[in-house]
Each structure stands twice: as C-alpha cells, then as structure tokens.
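Quick one, tokens below. Sequence please?
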C-alpha cells in the first residue's frame, strides 16, 4: 500500500478538522497517510520538541510515495511550501489541493513556483481520482 504525506497548514481548529477529513478520504481510497499534526506533534520533550518534529516530518516525507499539499488561502502556508519544494526536488509526485476560488489574476492560481511543482486539483473527488492514477 502506498503512503501519502499530507502537507497542510495546522494552526486553527478548522484546518485541523479539514486535514483529518481529507486524511480519512485518502485512507478510504486505499492509501496510508502520514499526517504531521498527529504523527509528529505528540512530543513530551519540550527542550528538543522542534528538532524531533522536524526529524519525524523528514522521515515521513522520505517514506512517502506521494505528497498531497493543501494550498488554499491567499498565499501557501510556508511549511507546506517547503514540503512541496523538498518533495519536488526528490522527484516525488506532489498533488496540490486548492479548493479556494481566489486566484492571483493573470499571474495564475497560486505562486508560480508552487503551481509549476504540483498537479493542481480543485476538489477532493478530483484529488482522489488523480491519486489513484499517480
């Protein structure tokens, strides 16, 4: 079974809920999912917390076959953008989910470097169909 790394902002209850919902949909489609908010954030060691989270997320990226990145908002979350760039440089397929209808006008849907690094999907059903084809 292939593994998906779910890169997404995780700073509000709405984002956390959406990420869990998306994880569940991806699992139903037959994939394992590494979800950083649950798979790397339960750290008791406060002194080394950031280092541990970073290392767990790096291992999650390395061990994943595909990256799904939530790229909603006026600008892509900086951590998500980093994960997209890292995965792209490693040659891993990256599917970008953008359910937000705002665009950058004539410049594109999102930042050029992000848009050129992902397979852009505009809905969860489209994402799930493309995941199966990757």
């Amino acid at each position: 079974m292939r593994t998906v790394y779910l890169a997404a902002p995780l700073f509000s209850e709405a984002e956390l809920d959406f990420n869990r919902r998306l994880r569940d949909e991806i699992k139903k489609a037959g994939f394992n999912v590494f979800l950083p908010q649950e798979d790397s954030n339960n750290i008791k060691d406060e002194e080394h917390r950031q280092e541990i989270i970073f290392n767990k997320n790096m291992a999650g990226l390395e061990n994943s076959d595909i990256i799904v990145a939530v790229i909603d908002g006026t600008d892509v979350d900086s951590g998500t953008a980093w994960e997209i760039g890292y995965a792209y440089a490693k040659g891993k397929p990256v599917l970008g989910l953008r359910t937000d209808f705002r665009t950058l006008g004539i410049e594109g849907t999102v930042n050029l470097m992000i848009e050129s690094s992902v397979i852009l999907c505009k809905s969860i059903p489209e994402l799930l169909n493309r995941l199966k084809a990757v």
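The chain has a mean pLDDT of 92. The chain is about 45% helix and 15% strand.
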